[in-house]
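Quality-control log, excerpt.
Job 1 of 2 completed; input and output follow.
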Amino acid sequence: MRLSSATRLAPRAKRPQASCAAFAACLVAALGILIGVLAPTRALAADGQEAPTLTEAQAAIVVDQAGNVLFSKNADQEFPMASITKVMTAIVALDSGKSLDDVCTITDANLGGEAQAAGYVETDTPTFRELLNAMLVYSANDAAYNVAVNVAGSEAAFVERMNAKAQEIGMTHTHFVNSHGLEDDAHYSSAEDLVRMGRYAFENYPLISQTVHQTSTVVTANGTSTRLYSTDALMGVYPGMRGIKTGKVSTGTTFLGASERNNVQLFTAVLGCTTDEGRFTDTRSLMDWAYQTYQQRLVARTGWTLALHPYAYDLGLRVAESPMLDATFSVWPDGGYLSYTTTRLCAGSLLEPGALTGATTWEQSGRTLGSVVLGTSRLVRRSSWPVFSLPLFSETEYGAS
């Protein structure tokens, strides 16, 4: 595993730090200039690791939050995306700026008796928020249709916006013809495009990530208040599951998923499954495989002495600098550069025990692994001291005296 580094220095302290509060204020300003050293984003592979077992998916992919591909199978092949469509419907609807508290009118969508629906009738007056909830949690097709009509005046006009948005975010194997995902030969996407859309939704639309994490929602349809339950069978069952959207058409089932553990966020997509259970089994397999493949790497311990600084009140003493907490990060094997950025006080700053001195942030292939905060701990006599040395915590990098 290769290692690279970058170090930024905060301005030299002009006088001894008489209080931790004043020093902390200086450090906050320093932390604002943390800059990552990024390796190029690329497909990642774990040497010697067997591929995840898939039971039904004809196309599948798992990526991290930075978009690094950890595993893929037929990721560019086009399949019906079914109700995963509704994620793009939510994105475009929120882009419109329409207030979530706006009262919406209901138009009969004529979607057929087998289409999953909340049961809205034309006399109902749901809020825009309620329609979005019914659409994303319960996958209500009538809610998706009416989101489109209330935002753009017609579904056709809304779909034009959906296709424009798909092009904007780089979905090159996707085409929409409706706002709900009911089957149509010209309505399709790919696994790679769908995880791109899922990542985009989570990064830019907090309401979407919050809504798809719900296990149920309450709607008032046909004059009756009803609780509708999530179609995501992994929510509340799979550790770290965060959503996001199921799909089902006559030709197969689909699922776009997201989960997070140990500061690792994964996005998965499975297309062309044959059963409801198969899409969840294969999603679980992709996520389990990825989390098990990550390796836990210790990068900091509180007992490590990283550098010695002049003591503010007795130049015959030194103040030892150490990590403030133990830190272990999840690292993808053979996943490119492991890089870090350090912000700290200039060498020679006069310090006392209990002061914050800096922080280091680690990244791998564009994914932030986590941060380590540094601080002073104990006083030692000015003498030769066995300073622990790592590329992250080296005397040279820190310019310690």
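Job 2 of 2 completed; input and output follow.
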Amino acid sequence: MEKKNTSKSVFYISLVLVAIIAVWSVAFNESFTKVSNAAYTFFTVDFGWLYLLAMIVFLFFIAYVGFGRYGKIRLGGDDSRPEYSNMTWFGLLFGCGMGVGLVFWGVAEPLSHYINPTDGIESASAGAADFAIKSFFTHWGILPWANYAIIGLALAYFMFRKDKKSLISCILEPLIGEKLANGWLGKLIDILAVFATVAGIVTSLGLGTMQINAGIHTLFGIPVNLTVQIVIVAVVTVIYISSAVSGLEKGISIISDANLYIAIGLLIVCFIVGPKVEVLNSFVNGMGQYIGNFIPDALKIASYGDNSWLGSWRLYYWAWFIAWAPFVGVFVARISKGRTIREFVLGVVLVPAAASCVWGAVFGNLGINLGAKGILSIEALKEVVATPETGLFLVLREYPLGFILSLVAIVSLCAFFVTSANSGVYVLSMLTSNGNINPPNSKKILWGVIQSVMAIGLLMAGGLKPLQTISLAAAFPFIFVMFAACVSLLKALKTEKKQ
């Protein structure tokens, strides 16, 4: 009875909190924007140093656990084996964790750094091109994936090896005790996880919708307006709710598998039609700069100088990835049963990080090459930077097979869009069903509808950015939850080794 009531309280409180935020952000958008911006500025300005330190600590911790004496421990019984093939697993990881973001920013972010670099680098220069690729590698490489792995590994260990519920609060039992983990503190942690997941998915739905609209406008002349965007959300909603209801094996994994091959095909063809030598040189040089300056770049923050670029990019990303850690971590844990800790770390951290860097080298140089060769003017490149949702399509149309590549990119974006959304539906349903790894379809449908209604409301109010901003501020406590998860997991692993 206690477990049932706990589940209901988390569910209803989460619904009320999400409803309040939705009404506030849509009906009183101006005040919501002011509050969210003030909160976010406070956390990133006064605690920017903490975000930088936290990401490094997460990486060192996950490397220590994965490649030390605990690496052979299996996430499940000693005789358990993975439920999914490596390709399906990678597809689910990539689609859930980074897919929409990489498609959205793969061209636009490197171009932005190329046009507006920092550290006194001349705009649109060779140095700016090097800086752009290195920065992209820093933002989408190993650090964000190590961040995701903290919650994912800890939860998978306690779920499948210790038979705990799939709730983030259960991770902390060895540290805070069962009473607090199942009491008010545990509920608070799970409710914050629900809110961060809803906010993250809703803003991704909105950004993905805007990019799909921009793509079909570029290809077919369909107008960019609210009506088209509502239709896009409605169509995608039917697809992602249907796939979530079908379950991991039938719905989500099939879409994920298909999209993995589509994305790989798009990447290969873009490399072939693009500036191949420049891409290869840029990748090798970028990796050298990324690895060689890894620690200085990861911890770089001015004591008295200007940190505006850092706040706009690196700190913003770190806050965003920490905000996504509950959602991605829960989903990654759910699909990782049977793997060893070492396999988990290799598959969740190193492989996706390498793939993200390859993606950035190819698509980033598609845009930078147009500026370096004078094919697009600086003014045209600034237009791409100003409207990142159009960047991919404005760049692709300058290359052979541009129309076909843009069409495939839209298909891939929709598939990543669906994978992120149905993963979010699955996680929200788990978190509000007392950690049930096979939550009821009624919860999946409800959370799917809530996400879409919120996305449409925020598109109508123009409030996507404030919701994203306030979710980053609200996720600030998760830095400490993740620190606690590290200590709790290490304590449990040490106890197991002694036994």
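Post-run check on job 2. Residues 1-5 have pLDDT under 50 and may be disordered.
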